[in-house]
């Protein structure tokens, strides 16, 4: 079993990574828990909820399954309220524990419900997508969407444990595996050249979900994110480097309509564009741009961006959270394994767009 | 000006107590604030919002007034959402600041909105009732009600400053002054015999809102609560003594229907009953029971409890949050200035009820 201990203000929690963790979920339940709420969606629930319940039942507490509708469109207060209704109707108290069994949407909503139910109860993350495993396991971000903005209502709330069963990735669509791997290689590109090289050597094994390779990739990703977050819990500055590829990526998602590309696919393509921009303004070697393009392709993500029109591209990137006073800040890499944030001249960005868009 | 500095995890904030603080609210706005949301209700807003806005305008930031419907019945998610709608429609960001101008309901909702808007922004409390000034200024509790329970959804979120203008108490109905004073004398009874004696000497001045007396009473109350909360931020044990009179009091509020008696009135009467019970089972001197009854009367609160029927009384007290496995825990005082929590035998409770209820 691979274990990452994450230090957070006021404590630490373990991320346990291994095949079959789903059958050992009782190990994550605190000794003084009074009841367990298992939050999932119909898709993941049909596949894994019964196994999770069997394992949780061994903790000797009542287990209540709470099934929420599937998808980002339901990540709102109305759906969240279904959790509160179920907890209160069933007499859950301050010492009860929630378990989030699902991808990022289930994790974000369950975590936020735990953050505000009776002013805060404990929760366990059981992420079932690769993206959630490498991204949501660390950082404590929870929340729901508001009609006027994504993730506008939320809290920082840390889990008591994260249980990552690498076997469940077997039922994940191949596109979602590739999208998750984009966030994995990102850690190499921003802070770990050795891990980047390892990803280049093991791209095929990662796409094939070879157990040792995927467990190692998840572990390094979680460790890397934990190192960044420990230095910047509330997003002052350093944490921004985690957004490598995201300024271009968000423009792709928004420009094509959310859902056309998976978030990770857009980030993968955005990393190619960020590499090109880094070559323009931050001295990133041309040979390394080719390596980035090759690895993004090797993990199965697109490397050619959609042609949204140069002006529309610029407008979309300017509304990104990282824009300040109309100027766009990008995460750039002077070399593989090193990142910084910087504004870039518009003509350089336009040259990058000209080089990276095409028919998709 | 009286100032209480409250230490909280990760920092400290000031409670400033003086006549006219409403005209100096700009002093509470952090230097890097981008915009100010002034949250109030129609009653308080009609009296004080323009003065508050004039003062806040001197901070040089845009001030947006957000008026919520008045009363506990509107302390819910729908009303809270009016704050989010207004903030997002007006482009408020992570560095904006909320100001809560009103009583406990406005303070709880504004504090919770600040706790979860963009995962947490800063807020300033400007409590306009005596109860909110002595009770909500310290402790960081924020939240809204759920149809299945009061304050079930919430967070611990500390203000950056509390501004208490003692002049605004002049427009408070006399009953609400008396109700607030019940929470004031409570601090003397649980932890400060000298302050108790001072309250006995100054009861008339307090009811008359004599400026120096009321400022001193607010200061000592806030300091006392801060001392308790500092030792027990998350309500493990010690903090329970703040609930002196509340087990009896909640039964009164619930038995008569919420709103028939003010919360503070019920707590005042409940303190007389807690004194009687302390005499039964904790060695509280009979002479001091008479002092408690006299001071509760002197501040204008009822000292005779409603006759709800002994069995109904017991049932109502058993559903109190402090009941465990059907046994009722009470906050008791072995002497004035000292408190503990303990289960009490049912026959002693019944004797107290027989002695303290009557026609009201």
Automatic annotation (TrEMBL), chains A, B:
Chief subcellular location: cytoplasm
Catalytic activity: 7-phospho-2-dehydro-3-deoxy-D-arabino-heptonate = 3-dehydroquinate + phosphate
Pfam families, per the entry: DHQ_synthase (PF01761), DHQS_C (PF24621)
Gene3D superfamilies, A to Z: 3.40.50.1970, Dehydroquinate synthase-like - alpha domain (1.20.1090.10)
Binding-site positions, Zn(2+): 183, 246, 263
Location in the cell: Cytoplasm
This protein's record includes keyword Methyltransferase: no
Its job: Catalyzes the conversion of 3-deoxy-D-arabino-heptulosonate 7-phosphate (DAHP) to dehydroquinate (DHQ).
Protein name: 3-dehydroquinate synthase
Source species of the chain: Bordetella genomosp. 10
Source species taxonomy: Bacteria, Pseudomonadati, Pseudomonadota, Betaproteobacteria, Burkholderiales
Gene name linked to the record: aroB
């Amino acid at each position: 079993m691979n274990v990452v201990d994450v230090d957070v203000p006021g404590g630490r929690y373990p991320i346990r990574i291994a095949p079959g963790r789903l059958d050992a979920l009782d190990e994550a339940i605190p000794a003084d828990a009074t009841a367990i709420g298992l939050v999932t969606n119909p898709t993941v629930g049909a596949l894994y909820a019964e196994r999770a319940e069997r394992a949780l039942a061994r903790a000797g507490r009542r287990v209540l399954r709470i099934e929420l509708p599937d998808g980002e469109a339901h990540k709102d207060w109305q759906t969240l309220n279904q959790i509160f209704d179920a907890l209160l109707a069933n007499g859950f108290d301050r010492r009860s524990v929630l378990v989030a069994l699902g991808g990022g949407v289930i994790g974000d909503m369950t975590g936020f419900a735990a953050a505000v139910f009776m002013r805060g109860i404990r929760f366990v993350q059981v992420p079932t997508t690769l993206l959630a495993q490498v991204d949501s396991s660390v950082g404590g971000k929870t929340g729901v969407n508001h009609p006027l903005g994504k993730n506008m209502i939320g809290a920082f709330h840390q889990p008591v444990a994260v249980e990552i069963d690498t076997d469940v990735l077997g039922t994940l669509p191949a596109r979602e595996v590739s999208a998750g791997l984009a966030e994995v290689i990102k850690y190499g590109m921003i802070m770990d050249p050795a891990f980047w090289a390892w990803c280049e050597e093991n791209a095929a094994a990662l796409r094939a979900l070879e157990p040792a390779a995927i467990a190692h990739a998840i572990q390094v990703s979680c460790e890397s994110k934990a190192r960044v977050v420990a230095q910047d819990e509330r997003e002052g500055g350093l944490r921004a480097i985690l957004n490598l590829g995201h300024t271009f990526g968000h423009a792709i998602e928004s420009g094509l309509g959310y859902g056309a590309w998976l978030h990770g696919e857009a980030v993968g393509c955005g990393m190619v564009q960020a590499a090109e921009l880094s070559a323009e303004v931050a001295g990133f070697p041309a040979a390394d741009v080719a390596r980035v393009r090759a690895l993004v392709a090797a993990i199965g993500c697109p490397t050619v961006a959609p042609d949204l029109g140069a002006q529309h591209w610029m407008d979309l990137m300017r509304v990104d959270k990282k824009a300040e006073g109309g100027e766009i800040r990008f995460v750039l890499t002077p070399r593989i394994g090193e990142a910084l944030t910087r504004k870039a001249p518009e003509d350089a960005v336009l040259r990058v767009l000209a080089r990276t868009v095409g028919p998709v």
